[in-house]
Amino acid sequence: MELTDVLATNKALVKVAKLYRSAQADALSALALHPGQDVLLWILGQEPDGMTISEIAARLGVEQPTVTRSLSRLDQGGWFIREPVPGDRRATRIRLTSKGRAVIPNIEAAWRTLAETATAGMAADQRAALVELLEKVRGNLRTLTAETE
């Protein structure tokens, strides 16, 4: 790859990543959330009976301490409750409150707005190609570093 291509590729990737993260943070701040918290709450929203921390970690592909830290940051918001797991004194089940369940459609709407804004002016086949190319980039980058959240 020529240096001009290297520079153009790196510039485009960095700028898109920064802009997306900034737009995501802005959209989620309107919901009193930070990036990452939306995904955790959304996953909990898919399980009406709640999930244990180990189940959440497995679903997110992260370690349990990461989930514990994320939950402690969300703890004061009234998004979820902690319940003991019958028969397992060490485990705690995390279940969304009505406030937590009510924010799920808003999270999905924020995601939709981000995706629609990012792909505005693209035809369906272009959006599909973009996703395919981004997944290829992701796979390539995974050879260099461990993927987190």
Automatic annotation (TrEMBL):
Gene3D superfamilies: Winged helix-like DNA-binding domain superfamily/Winged helix DNA-binding domain (1.10.10.10)
Top-level division of the source organism's lineage: Bacteria
Listed Pfam families: MarR_2
Keyword entries, A-Z: DNA-binding, Transcription, Transcription regulation
Ranges of residues in domain HTH marR-type: 1-139
GO molecular function (one): DNA binding
Keyword DNA-binding listed: yes
PANTHER family with a match to the protein in the record: TRANSCRIPTIONAL REGULATOR, MARR (PTHR42756), TRANSCRIPTIONAL REPRESSOR OF EMRAB OPERON (PTHR42756:SF1)
The protein's name in its UniProt record: MarR family transcriptional regulator
